[in-house]
Write a structure and sequence with these properties.
This protein is 50% helix and 17% strand. The protein is of the alpha+beta class and 557 residues long. It comes from Marmota monax. It is found in: Cytoplasm, Cytoskeleton, Microtubule organizing center, Centrosome; Cytoplasm, Cytoskeleton, Spindle; Early endosome; Nucleus.
Amino acid sequence: MLATAVPPIAGVKKPSKRPAWDLKGQLCDLNAELKRCREKSQTLDQENQQLREQLKEAQQQAKDLGTERSTLEGELARVRTQAEQGQQQLGNLSAHVLELEERLGTQEGLVQVLQKEQLELQEERRGLTTRLEEQERRLQASEAALSSSQAKVASLQQEATTQAALLAERGDRLHGLEMERRRLHNQLQELKGNIRVFCRVRPVLEGESTPSPGFLLFPPGPGGPTDPPTRLSLARSDDRRATLSGAPAPTTRHDFSFDRVFPPGSRQDEVFEEISMLVQSALDGYPVCIFAYGQTGSGKTFTMEGGPGGDPQLEGLIPRALRHLFSVAQELNGQGWTYSFVASYVEIYNETVRDLLATGTRKGPGGECEIRRAGPGSEELTITNARYVPVSCEKEVETLLHLARQNRAVARTAQNERSSRSHSVFQLQISGEHAARGLQCIAPLNLVDLAGSERLDPGLALGPGERDRLRETQAINSSLSTLGLVIMALSNKESYVPYRNSKLTYLLQNSLGGSAKMLMFVNISPLEENVSESLNSLRFASKVNQCVIGTAQANKK
């Protein structure tokens, strides 16, 4: 530390000036002064010593302060550098803060959206919680119901096992009953006769003359007036005897008996009801053949195909038979039977077979068909170039019948303005299978609309084109005669049956023999002017009705 000024010694008064003579006093004063000086010197030495020490300490402090100053200056420089860096960082941080503030604004908006969504989700969560609680309540109820149902299922399974065994037993019984039904059904058909003949008289049409009373009579059936008629009585005058004697021509009655007679007022459904059991036999595996025989205009085509206009009441045997077969096949499906049906429709015109279902280029002369064996050693017959169409519903059958009507050969004769001049043969091949029992049955159903049976003279008209009509009539009568001969040969069990004498009988041979069932409709006109042709038709039908063919056998595998 720096030395401070020494204050004057307190209490010492400066001696007054002595006189010059007073040397002793002056000496005393000088000694006192010396003493004071010495004390003062001593004090000053002490102070000097203290000041030196203080100087030394001050110098040390100055040195320390210099060192500290250098340190502080370095620290200051470092702090200034750090401050500059801090300023730069502060600028960066300020920019980052601005960026963060901008992002914060965005995030705040997003937070608001999320908060709104959160509120919505919370509301939805409350709703879901409520639903969950409801579902849990329902689940508990369902679990309780499930437990109850499981108990019931176990009981039902046990019952189902019992029922399955019972069902199998009943299935066996049902199959046995179905087989017994088929056997009894066949016995019933055999009792009625494997060859049956029905007679149908068409009504008088508009514009035709009404026959005289008693011309056609229908005596009651065997059981009385309520029984369907089976007899027909026709009156005919003998004009030759009237000419010779001059008296009125006597009337001769001709009585005929058939399996069933349908008077003019009979409806189509009545006619089909009578043959429905026979159609059923085809489904059971027995070949069935149904003919419509008679002169032109006697109602054969109407009986087989029905009337025009699509009136359901006028439907013929073909559409009704197929509807019946489809329905029964559907019922038998529940018993394990599956059926398939394949239809064909041909005509035999002048001993030439033509496909009535032909379309496009297959029509015309190039579409002629031939009857051939299905294969070497096979008894099954097939028709080359003919269409075989699978059918499964009535609509498909209607389409085929419409096409066949358009293709069938028709011509004008003296008997009928629009006369069918060919035999039409509708064949339905029925195949049934019971896969579980390994059973099969295959049988054809033949529905045949024969050509007009009139003799040569009534149908002969003069004109340039009548030679063709004459050949047609000869071919028709020849094939009908062969049909009669075949039936007679089968009835007499002859070793040779002339199937090949006619394309018609050759085609139908597998449906005419002892393994088949046959029915013939003889259609006659109610007009007196056609009495000669009616008698010929009735006589032919009577001969057929007298024939008996052996027991039918089902085609089963």
